[in-house]
User: Fold these one by one.
Assistant:
Number 1:
Amino acid sequence: MNIHEYQSKAILKRYGVPVPNGKPAFSVEEAVAVAQELNSPVKVVKAQIHAGGRGKAGGVKIAKNLDEVKNYATELLGKILVTHQTGPDGKKVNRLLIEEGSNIKKEYYLSFVIDRTTARAVMMGSEEGGVEIEKVAAETPEKIFKEYIDPAVGLMPFQASRIAYKMNFPAAAIRKATAFILKLYNVFVGEDCSQVEINPLVVTAEDDVIALDAKLNFDDSALYRHPDIEALRDETEEDPKERTAAKEGLSYVNLGGNVACMVNGAGLAMATVDILKHYGGEPANFLDVGGDSTPEKIATAFKIMLEGGQAKGIFVNIFGGINRCDAVAGGIVEAAKIISEDGKSLPVPVVVRLEGTNVELGRQILKDSPIANVIMAPTMEDGAKEVVRLVNEAK
Amino acid sequence: MSILVNKDTKVIVQGITGKQATFHTKQMLAYGTKIVGGVTPGKAGQTVEGVPVFNSVADAVQATGATASVIYVPARFAADSIMEGVDAGLDLVVCITEHIPVQDMVKVRRYMEGKKTRLIGPNCPGIMTTDECKLGIIPAMVQSKGRVGLVSRSGTLTYEAAFQLKNAGIGITTSLGIGGDPVKGTDFIDALKLFKDDDDTLAVLMIGEIGGTAEEDAAKWIKENMPNKPVTAFIAGRQAPPGKRMGHAGAIISGGKGTAADKIAALNAVGIDVADTVAHIGETVVATLKRAGIYEKCYSAN
């Protein structure tokens, strides 16, 4: 799960990690009111969307006075911001962060993630801050320093100090940097983050060490023990179909195309998206409906795929193992009846590929289905080709 | 021969009184698995499908001599269950549970250092040695006995692939689902090492997906260490957009790393055939076996 920068900074503050003074604003008036309370001569107006690259896209403005704050807030609120991370459609700005400007001496990079190979948290730091770290990693990997953390004892002060020296913090800021790093690790562990990224972390003219930006990502599996984090979820940032699916317990990702698919199992679902593309289709979604799906759950999945007229055809790809094919086929037919308006057809063709336990019984159930455009495919390859053909034909 | 489990492996089921565990205990027993006990704290003295229940893994091990366990415990208690199995000195712990917090698994892996237990999973379908023993949820009907080892990050793709092989007359020694989480007990290289040392396994099918670099690492390892057993692969997620989690917690392209294209390129670079679509896994394995001259040894009519 992702949250906004201002929410991340509020969490950092709670852990004693220095951040600039500031507050969120949801309207121009609020932006001006917040700016008035701030002490610095210069205020920063920052668009709050769940995507990086805001600065380059014009989402971060430096205001020298309240009039400028007002102008920038007016410009940014409601604007569609397109960054390298938003995709071509961009994201609408509904919230701003207004904060004090900082006297930046130098920018750094600092992050914590889980390293799969060592099964440990790893801290990465670089004095190349304020730029994309992937770029630094590709061009000058020697400028990225790492510390692996033993979960039994946590991040040790010597590690924080060691990386601070390697990152080349000025002597006057080393102690502050070390303290910053240790507290940031507490955030990473304490909040079950999957990633904490501070880019840039800055040293100011006064040799203070502060998080100028902050990106926190959270482990979805651990949200049950962080209800306060779950409460920060901004649904307007999420794809509405993905949001509905998540609430219904379906694993769904909108891929934007028009050939939908419903599959049991995440791996087979990914592979089904791939095979649709392989045969020239534009996949609409990834959707893992799970193994023990009821007709109601399948009907919900159909509704999500059809919502807004997105799906022009649906490929149902099921491997029935312990959940037998006849049970799955029965569920599909019942779901089709729930969705069908006239009891005879669905708004788009549904091609079904079944394989596994009791496959013949399952095929017979589909054959006997009263819904005319539920079509049985003899193999997965045939099914993928057929649904793509039907969608292209309907154009 | 086979890897990790066989007809003599004594198994306990952690969380045996749960609905899913009870259902699968019945399935595992029907397959011939030696389920000798179950564990649910507070339910010692009961039986499930004729299997005695104990209050702790240590009690169950002491009473039954079990060397392996399979875990069907809810996510918030599962990390603890894994460590309990490790503490009891089991050789093998298989954790089916999905959605264990990643940082809990980091602690589990740390706890396991220096101990003898091998962990498979979490978030996996388990392990099945054909016609001998199954721990987990792999459907009995998917695989026939034979000479190919199967290792996969995905459950249904394991079944799909095993079944395609079965239909092509190619059987399996042991199939192993290592799970879809980013931090897990057994990875591709660990599984490949086991298959390399198993005389019955003549070739390996490896099913990967986006996220991480385990497939790339495996490609390198295969080139350096396993020249005599051909490997065929499939990678799911060619069309996955970056930054999106595709069902599995570990199936995500992040920071430009973990794309299917990178993995396929790394595998191809060391001469490993990668099936172009999921529908062609079976025939790609057959082609690999023929090229290696071991198809006849691996083929048996159903």
Number 2:
Amino acid sequence: MSTYLYLNRYKGDLIMHRYILKRIGISLITIWLLITITFFLIHIIPGEPFSNEKKLPPQVLDNLNKYYGLDKPLTIQYLRYLGNIAKGDLGYSLIYKGRTVNDIISQAFPYSAQLGIQSLIVGIALGLTLGIMAALHRNKILDYSIMIIAVLGISIPNFIIGGLLQYFLGVKYKLFPVAQWKGFIYTILPTIALGTRILATQVRMIRTSTLDVLSQDYINAAKAKGINRMGIIFRHILPNSILPIITTLGPLTATILTGTFVVENIFAIPGLGRYFVQGVQDLDYPVVMGTTLFYGIFLVGLNFLVDILYFFIDPRINANSITGDSL
Amino acid sequence: MRKRFLILLIIAIFTFGLIVGCNNNGTSLPEQAEKILRIAQGSEPPALDPAKANDNISLQIGQALFEGLYRYHNGEYIEGMAKGEPEISEDGLVWIFHLKDSKWSDGKPVTAHDFEYGWKRLVDPETGSDSAYKMTEYVAGAMEFYQGEGSRDDVGVKAINDKTLEVRLVSNTPYFKEIISFGVFLPVREDIVEKYGDSFATKPENMVYNGPWVLTKWEHDVELEFEPNENYWNRAAVKLDRVVSPIISDYTTQVNMFETGDLHMTPLMGEFAVQYDKEGKAKFIEDGLSISVLLNKEGFPPFQNENIRKAFNLAVDRESFINNIYGLPAIPATNLINQAIRGVERPFREEFPGDYFSVFDPEKAKELLEKGLEELGLDKLPKLELMFLDGGASPIFAEFLQENYRKNLGAEVILTPISFEKRMEISMTKEFSALINPTGPDFDDPISVLEIWVKDHPYNEVNYNNLAFDKLISQAKTTQDIKKRMELMADAEKLLVEDMYIIPIMHNVMGYAISEGVSNLYLTPWCPDIDWMFGDLEITNN
């Protein structure tokens, strides 16, 4: 290895380190902002956590607020919350007595994550295949059919897809269990329901990016070299048309893995999704804060990972172009 | 190189998916030799700690796991830990309960001290109980202790010895037995609470049980499992071998699971109720909820006139709403107390039918309106604002009312949907003209429906003020003779309905479907609404 190359490499590493440090800093600030904004927003919502179901006498509400520290000024509550987060303590749920938010997340997350990973695999694999197929058969019947599926997949709400799957495949033909999560067979219907959505959003993007790749000179060059069709698809089209997906993969993965209320609710999956929705409805402050924080960290982390991944995958991007620095 | 890696990764993902996909080829349910009842819960029970349970699900499970002095079962108050009837002092202020010989699931005897500890813990401000108010109203010294003014020792609950419990009341409360049948007046073991502290009753192994069942599994958001408590004093009454309660929050999913036989029971709502009813597979019970319309004379001055109020009552075609729009077999109401509340020996409504007006009479309504307007010196009614909770059947009922009043009275009604928070606010400010009010009794006694309408009661939202009514209620609250009490309350109800600040509309029903072969499963209009403790199941061959 020549000295020149070595130095260049070293310079690249330095930029990379600086870039990573900077990104970590920005991520921490983002998460702090997220905590602060969520904290104050959730307290702006009218109502009280204990007055949801029935009218409680005022002295009972006072005592409960005192018991849970909700009688203190909001700023004190906020500072106390920040202090607890620093210790990794997300507090106790106000509704589910004696359960900590840490417990709830650590129990529910694995279910959501499994469902999420399965759906991502199915959705992205099928999305890729169908998207490339559509592009290769542009403006033909196959293309139109796939696009119709994609449009339907996006426009039909999840709970309808889930409900139909449950009714036809579960109740009517008894091929799969209707609900619950007790083994792989139970995961199939929810995976399809959630995967359809992912598939539908990905297909269009892949189709567009594949069309873009198809018009590139290197495809013509490959054809001219006499490489067969499959070879072109796997060596040239697939790796290049996958790039735009990676950008969306960060937020998509974060959203899917941290639970989806509708699908989890229909199939009675004990995931995290319901806590996002139910927590707000019940004004269960610690649960709302905890789940939002968890999602935020996940999202910021994955975005960060995707950026780094890009750096390695796409040769057109180098350290200079990401950081905007020129050394 | 990296691209090749990506391709390999994708292929690997595909293959992995296929392998996993082929691994399981369906599951088959094991042969059912045990009697296992499967009943879904709509959510995770928020609290099994007896002092913190205050919702339908926690209380339903609580009644299976724990037992107080008496319990509500199949329309009656039956003995629990208490032996026979209580001894009541002449002034009705001191109640003495004798306890049975019975044991906790860990073999220790259930004593009056466990009751004293459990009840005092309920109103201890340190406990943070949501349901302390159930006791503070009735038991002497409880309110003071709860508000941090009195001391624990001054709370009127005392174990005289291991088997005798003495309770002192704030005032003569003839229906105190009904009150303490609610699932928070339970014995609690001090040693267990001390041992587990904050994690008491958060896991099956962190509690002991004195009810018919013990909790054997509590997988959060997934499933609960119960097995009979071998130490329960009436073990023979427990017929099932196991009860499994999967947590299914989506209601349609519950119906679907009932269809496939994964559940033995499902609630039926809306379309499902109508459909199951047509097929003859639905059961309906009154759910304790009654719909009425509150008229506020301060918000809408014409309501000061009795004839106008009565016109607004007679102009509502209740039967048409129930049969043509609502779809469920609800009961058109000409009174305020529903069919489920007990009277002297039979349901109150059987003993006092309460047909206080003819259910629909548009001509008479028109006549009364004109008479009323004349008395007030008005040409026509101003616009009336009708508020309703935005959810459930209230919006369609509001539209129906609007149409009825337009057609039968020529009255113009503006509809205003309100949120739950706004509804709470109105119960404080009392700023409204007319309001659709779905409400139900808190416990099984007509007093629960009636007492809120006495002058200056915080929930008296129409500022109803009738001395004769107040007098009847205060008499009813202190009379020990049950027949006399019921008569007093029937009179009070009649007065209240005839003054017509509250227009009774209908007593609602709730639909259920229950599998064949399941017996002794009771649905009650109270919280908790399902009672499966002493249920039974025929084992069928399919």
